[in-house]
Each structure stands twice: as C-alpha cells, then as structure tokens.
Amino acid sequence: MGLSSFIERCISSFRDAIKDSFTNDRDFTLFLCIGFLAGVAGGINTSIFNNFLNDVFHLSETARGVLEFPRELPGFLVVFVLSMLAFLGDTRITSISMFAAAIGIAGLGFSHSFGVLILFLMIFSMGQHLYMPLASSIGMHLSEPEKFGSRLAKYNAYNLSASLIGYGVVFVGFKYLHVSYKTAFIIAALFYLFATFTSFLMKKQEPHHKSFKLIIRKRYTLYYLLCMVNGARKQIFLTFAPWVLIQMFHVGPETFAIYGVIIALVSIFTRTLVGNAIDKLGERKVLSIEAVVLFWLCIGYSFAANIFTASVAGIVIAACYIIDSSTNAVDMARSTYMRKIALHSSDITHTLSLGVTVDHAVSMSIPILGGLLWSAFGYQVVFMSAAVIAATNFVLSMRICTE
User: Fold this and answer.
1) Cβ distance 389 to 229 under 8 Å?
2) Cis omega (within 30 of 0) on the bond before 242?
3) pLDDT exceeding 90 applies to what percent of the chain?
4) What tens digit of pLDDT does each residue of 26-49 get?
5) Could you give the CA distance from residue 325 to residue 88 in angstroms, rounded to a whole number?
6) Which candidate among 103, 135, 152, 169 keeps its CA 20 to 30 Å from the CA of 160?
C-alpha cells in the first residue's frame, strides 16, 4: 500500500510537471519535443548511414569523399533557401525542414542507384541544414539573455537523450531482428514526421522576417572564420572517422549503435557542462579548450596504428571517435558568441545561417581532398591535416572578445 501510494505520487508529480511546462513555457516545451523526436531519427541515421553506403553501394574512400559534395551542398545553399522562406517565420520553416528530412531519409531506404541516392540525400540534407540555424535562433528567442547557454544545453540534452532510443532501435533491430536498412530509414522518417506535426503546434511565430537579407559585417568576420575552420575539421571527422572504423576495423551498425549510446550518455553531461561554462567562463575559454582537445584527438587518429597493436589501435581510435562526437556541444558557444556581438537582433538568424553556409563552403571540398589524400598516402595524413586545422581554430578562438 505504501509503495502504491508512492508510485501514484510520482505519477501525479510527473503529470503536474508536464502540465506546468505546457502552461507556463508551452512553446519551449514543444521546442524540446521537436528536439527529442529529431534526436531519435538522428540516432538511427548516425548508426547506419556509413555502413549503408559501404554494404549497399560499396564505395571506395575516394567515392566516399566525393559524395560529401552533394550531401553538403544544401548546407552551402541554406542561406539562400532561408531568404526565400523568410516570410513564413522560423517555426514554420522548421516544419518544412522536418518534413524534408522525413521525405529524404525515407527515400534513402528505397535508393537502388547512385543517382537516386544523391537526390534523396540532398533532400534529407536540406531538411537537416535548414534546421541548424533555426534551432539556435528559436532556442535563444525563447530564453532570457542570461540563460542562452543553459537553455540551448537543455534542448541539446533532450535531443541527445532521444538519440539513445534511435541507437537502441538499431542495436536490437540489426543484432536480433535482422531488419533491413530500408526499414530502419522508414522508422527514422516517421519520427521526423512526428516532429513536423509538433512544430505546427507552436504558437509563437517570432523571429519572423519580412525579408531575409544577406548580412555581411566586418564585426562578424571572426565568427565566419570560426565557422570556416570548424566546418573543415568537423567534416574530416564526420566523413573519415567512421570510415576508418568500417574499412580498417570492420565495425558494423550494431557496434556504431553502442558507440552512439556511449556518446549520448557522455554528451548529456558535456552539453550541460558546456552550457554552464559558456554562461560562467565565456565563449573564448570554451572554444579554446575545445581546440586543444581536438588537436590531440587528431594526433590519436593519426598515430594510434603506429604505436599500438591492431586491436589496441582500434580501441584507441574508437575512443577518439566517441570523445570527438561528444564535443559537438561546443557549437553552442559559436552561436552565443554571435548573439552577444550582434548589432541588431534581426541580424542573428541571418548571420547564423550565413555561418552555416560559410561552414559548408569548406565542408563540400575538404572530403574530396581528404579522399584523394587517403588514396595516395593513407588515412593518417588526413587526420594530421585535421590537427593543423584544430591548431588554427585555437589561434582564432583566442581572439574572441564579447565586451
């Protein structure tokens, strides 16, 4: 009887907390729900995408690098697409982005030719990249200035917590149920559709732009440079770190799902930590520390196989992959830095989206060069190049000033 009463009180408290969230902070709660649903879909995609390319299309490292050009092209074009959709407002554009992601990822499962793969990959990528600047813009719009870091961290924590479900779907599905890649992609598409519906429930339409101007100010030059070097190093990691694990150490989808679970658990902590660190220490220190960590991770990718036995090297590179993935939270610092130096509030979404475009102007070409370097000299040279980029990131980060 005592246990029953305790459970009833817990359920009642949880129900009241949910009700209070929707009553007092309805739009932010819905925003968290969007992040949660997209997180499940993202967890599925992250776990299977590279294995899908390897198992179904049997790509070489050069072809894998070349594929990043059409995959990242929507990121370059996002500022122009946003300019055409600006009259809708950020939350309605979010609806479009989630729907595009749903169509694109479902289409990947039905792709049986390289041309069809590229088409649906670009649709999916456009949905993802449209949402990148919007997530930061909406999150900060629904927050007080002194809580930008912690509120964005809360959103990211929900997104990452949900990815655990996606990783679980992949692990159980591929290890025990023998599901196909097509089935996994369709499940992910359903979660993007749920996110689309949720976004329509949001009432607050601001930020809303009658026009979307291409804003280039000298004041924002350092922000654009940070986006550029971040895009270069990040793309080397996104493209080639999992490819090393697949090609050199034969890691399958279920193992990537386990890595994903570890990454999500670590990142839930690190995102909250980074969010609080941004508020207390500032963007300069946070981004400088990130650059140092990334430099040493690149060294680990490059020389693990030369220092350790094959089995130990695989563990070291997997650890680098996990730690590297867990540093994504630091992207918040670039967004909050932009928000703090913005001359006008109307500059924020415009400049964040241009930052995504600058990021992807580099991202499109770097993997092609990386694939050629891998073919000619081995994957170690690719990550040594990334270490140089990380060092450049440190120099730029030390120049940040928000006063």
Assistant:
1) yes
2) no
3) 45
4) 888 899 999 999 999 999 999 999
5) 33
6) 103
Residue 178 falls within a domain, yes or no? yes
Give the 3-state secondary structure of residue 400.
coil
Structure tokens at 107: 């289409």
- Alpha helices by DSSP H, listed for 179-220, are 181-200
Asked if the structure places residue 91 within a domain, the reply is yes
Would 9 be classed as within a structural domain? no
Are 292 and 327 in contact by the 8 Å Cβ rule? The answer is no
Cα(382)–Cα(299) distance, integer angstroms: 11
119 C-beta neighbours (distance < 10 Å), count: 16
Q: Cα separation of 167 and 139, whole Å? A: 25
φ, ψ (nearest 5 deg) of residue 399: -90, 0
Range of the domain at 257: 27-196+212-397
pLDDT at 402 over 80: no
Q: In this structure, are residues 97 and 128 in contact, taking their beta carbons and an 8 Å threshold? A: yes
Q: Give the C-alpha distances (Å, rounded to integers) separating 228 from 175, 212, 217, 348, 364.
A: 39, 22, 16, 18, 11
Residue 44 makes CB contacts below 8 A (sequence gap 6+) with 166, 167, 169, 170, 184, 185, 187, 188, 191
| 205 domain-assigned | no
CATH of the domain at 119: 1.20.1250.20
Number of domains within the chain = 1
- Residue 6 reports pLDDT greater than 60: no
